[in-house]
Every structure is written in C-alpha cells, then in structure tokens.
Design brief:
eight-stranded mixed beta sheet, alpha/beta
Length: 299
C-alpha cells in the first residue's frame, strides 16, 4: 500500500465514520483511525495540545469527522465542550497538517448547514451568505474558520455542510423510529418548517467523490436534492412504515424536552440544495425521501 492510498480518519467509530471506513477499505485505501481526546500515539487531544505528527506524515488525505455530540441538553458546560471540540480540535489538526514534510493532498472536514443560520426563507446553496446568529451557526463558523491554516497552507480543503443523515442504526432517524413504528409519530412544531437530509450511503459516496475531484474545495452542501417540510417528512416516514403519522408535537413541548438544542435543530427552518455536487456531476443514488427512507429502514 503506497502512502498516496493512506487516509487518516477521525471519528472512525461513529455512524458516518464506521460506514466510511468500510467503504474506503473496499476501494483499496488504507484507513488509519485517528483518535480524538487521546494523548498517545495515533491520536490528538485539543485539551492538552498533543497530536501524533508522525501518523499524519505522508497521508494522501485526512478526513475529520470527530466532535462532541450536539444531541444533549446545552448547559453552559456542554456548549463549551461542543465549541472547543470543533474549533480547537480542528485548528490543532489543520495547523499540524501544514507542518509535516509530506502534506496531504486533501483535508475534508465536517460542518453543517446551520452555517447559513437557523431560519431562512430562501433555498440556500454554497454561494448563500452565512450567518452566526444562534449557537449552532456560531459553532459552524468557528469550525470552518479553524480549517483556514490548511487551505492557506496549500492543502485542498473541503467543508462538508451536512444535515439530517438517514440511517436506522444511529442519528436522528434512529431516535424517531420507535414512536413512528407504534403509530405515535407526526409533524413537529406545526410541520411547516423546511428541512434538508441525506441518506447515509449517498453521504459516503459524496465524501469518496471529493477525494480525487480536484475541482471541489471550500463549502459543499452534503444534502439530497429534495427538501421537505417537517409534515412531509412525517407523512413519508409513516407511509414507508405503513403506520399513521398524524400525532403532532407542539413546539413548546419540544422546547421543554430539549431546550435550545431542540429549537436550533428540529425547529430550524432551512432548505439547502447541493449545487456544487450537482454542478460537478455527482449523482445521488437516492435523491428522493421515500427511496432514501426505504433504503435506510430496509423496507
């Protein structure tokens, strides 16, 4: 295996990382998991400043997925952990990559469509103006800015702006399924807010597509072409499961359960389209919600 085929992967045990690791291995890459909050070899720790320089030397690509989970109540301490893990961890990695003798050809770092804000009336593409109003937009702003050392140092840098990733084994859909299977699902917060999503297999192929596509750099909306409302999502999921899906959850109840986290994720109103991917020739295997949900759930 040549150094060109070696890929450093943070967050390798997560929902996206484990699926991506399997796919890259199938394609002949050597995948090296790079552990976060780890002070030994083969890892880095933004809390201490430790990073294993030698492990990064000569890698073809670095794919950075690691970060503190946002799926928790946002206490002051939790917010500090979420922000620091993305801002400081990414900056430590980016600054180290430009200091090694053999720099990677590409640095792919996760972000989110909340870089555009929380509530936007228009459909957004990568040329849309960003926003930092709200906690998640501020996090994604700091997260993306932390990669600047790599891009300024001549490393092609891709910012994956993701949204809801559809999988029955983890993530938001996995948490919805028990209620919907019991016929207790329905639209949330009135159901009119728009949402973007992507099937896990399409996200994995999109990341793989970025590896060798020299034209792809900067923000990339990692979302499916079809956007839906919360009500349409609930109706489609219920239809796929052959269960009723009319029991609503009002916004006040969601806010009581999850606080600011619920208001900035589930109640946000954002419709993003994958302009860069579509213009670059990427083909989504499951571009519509019905087929993507059936693939995710195995129906």
């Amino acid at each position: 295996m040549t150094a060109r085929r070696r890929i450093i992967l943070t967050g390798a045990t997560g929902l996206i990382g484990s699926a991506l690791s399997r796919r890259l291995t199938e394609l002949g890459y050597e995948v090296i998991p790079f552990r976060s909050r780890h002070d030994g070899s083969g890892g880095f720790n933004h809390l201490t400043g430790h990073i294993d320089h030698a492990a990064l030397e000569g890698a073809y690509a670095v794919i950075h997925l690691a970060g503190e989970s946002i799926a928790q109540r946002w206490s002051v301490a939790a917010k500090e952990r979420i922000m620091a893990s993305r801002r400081d961890g990414t900056r430590l990695l980016a600054e180290t990559l430009i200091s090694v003798r053999q720099k990677p050809e590409v640095f792919i770092s996760m972000s989110g469509i909340n870089r555009y804000g929380l509530h936007r009336a228009e459909t957004l593409d990568e040329s849309s103006a960003p926003s930092a109003e709200g906690f998640l937009p501020a996090v994604t702003e700091a997260w993306e800015n932390a990669t600047l050392a790599a891009s300024k140092g001549g490393i092609r840098t891709v910012l994956l702006r993701t949204s809801l990733v559809l999988s029955s084994t983890g993530g938001g859909l996995n948490k919805m399924l028990p209620a919907f299977r019991l016929g207790l699902g329905g639209p949330i917060g009135g159901g009119r807010q728009r949402m973007s999503w992507i099937g896990l297999p399409d996200l994995i192929e999109l990341i793989v597509w970025c590896l060798d596509n020299q034209a792809i750099r900067g923000p990339l909306n990692a979302v499916a072409p079809q956007t839906v409302t919360q009500a349409e999502f609930a109706h489609t999921l219920g239809a796929v499961l052959r269960r009723p899906s009319f029991l609503p959850m009002p916004a006040w109840a969601l806010s009581m359960l999850f606080g600011q986290m619920g208001r900035e994720t589930i109640l946000s109103d954002l419709a993003a389209r994958p302009a860069v991917a579509r213009d670059g020739g990427f083909r989504f295997a499951k571009p519509d919600l019905d087929s993507a949900l059936r693939q995710a759930i195995g129906e």
